[in-house]
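[job 4417] fold queue: 2 targets
>>> target A
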Amino acid sequence: MTSDSSASSRKTVDVVCVASWNADLVSHVARPLARGETLMASAFSISPGGKGSNAAVAAARQGARVALIARIGDDEFGRMGLALWHGEGIATGHVECAPGERSGVAQILVYADGDNSIAVYPGAGAGLGAQQVQAAGALLAGCRVVMASCEVPIEAALQAFQMAHGSAGKALTILNPAPARPLPDELLARVDVLTPNESELFQLAGAAHAGSIDAAAAQLLTRGVGAVLVTLGAAGCRLYQRDQAPVEVAGRAMAVRDTVGAGDTFTGALAAALARGEALAGAMQWANAAAALSVTRAGAIEGIPTLAAVAALLT
């Protein structure tokens, strides 16, 4: 069963997101827990989440026309996702609602310094595969950017990126490799822009390159990735491309509430900027500013800024 909305009927969109969805169960605690330890939380909330969903909302708030390819449970958390996407004007014609299955959940601990730890149960999203992606061929043939994360099954991301680069596809592909896991060269060769954070970069490149961002990025470029755009938190981001000097964008001093969703905001804002024709070096400026703004408010969705807010920060 697929969902429907007025936005879902659009044949042409700017950004297609092969999306994970989950409800965020967020507890605020003073510090990370030791094994076997119990701490009292100072606050708790349930809010929309999932790396793909967050990035799609970020792209939409940056002015892109966005569509999802996703699989959710036919439950209260799934209905939360549909309500969010409809409210953001995101097309949901290729969101499958799986009867009898639960939607994904993320259990998030936010610490006093704004950092966090996250455990994700994918739920119905684990069933997203090549078949659902193939059914969205018209969307993929007409869009400008296709993005995915490692929260969705690899076969779904690979199918989408193959179609984006196929005879009918002309779209750029963005992969946010979070959570980091081993990725086949077949997939990496289809990635135009990879957006890892520093930890994910080292996990993907392997122990031999740990400690050197330059060496780790170079290793991934040799495996076929078009560009490696490393997010460095408060230090900004750094772009690596073959036979070119690295391009660095400095971080911005912001009052941090929490960092939940900052990486997703970066990826979504990057996709939107590329879709409207920004060059990669310019698009990373927009993405860096959007991510900086996102940490000033609590929660992944509440922190995602609008295009106007990012433009104001950049002026």
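>>> target B
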Amino acid sequence: MGISLSILMIWVIWGGHWEQWSDVRTVGTALQGYGVSAGLAGVLLLILDLLLPVPGTVVMSALGYLYGTVLGALLGFIGSFIAGLIGYGVGRLFPEKTARRFLGEKDFVRGKSLFARGGGWVIALSRAVPILPEALAVTAGLLRMPVPAFVLALACGSLPMAALFAWIGATGHDRPLLTLILSFGVPAVLWSLASLWHRRSD
């Protein structure tokens, strides 16, 4: 809860500075100003979503607009995936005693149990929700979610999002209902298959 509130406060303080970043072409034009480093700039923006209210889906769409669906999706995936890994790593930096004190003993035990049982679903599906993804990644680290399960779930959530919005940016198609369905449906299917494979490989 504390992590989510902290990120929400950053949105309140800095959100106004990102209003102009709500249009794919505007973001694409801004990224083009970095020349050959435009892709790297887009990746860094997605990583900065850990701290700032970066409109991740718009940046992913802008990468698709600039580089096409395949390369745009790859760049978007790299940025989103690294952001999630860093968030998880930050959470793991805190000793368990500190995490217990920060979250409270009851919430720590309850959260650890939740992430042990269904943490993969939480991480995979959260990539489609604004603000929450990186806060949940940090929380997963705090609660010691197993690394293999976290990485798999993160990939299952990040890849479809990056591909979907890169395709939207590259083609100009904007179908809100289809986007909503695919944003949650594809990660759910991928995580179901990945978790089944993960259990069988243990």
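[job 4417] complete. Note on B: Residues 1-16 have pLDDT under 50 and may be disordered.
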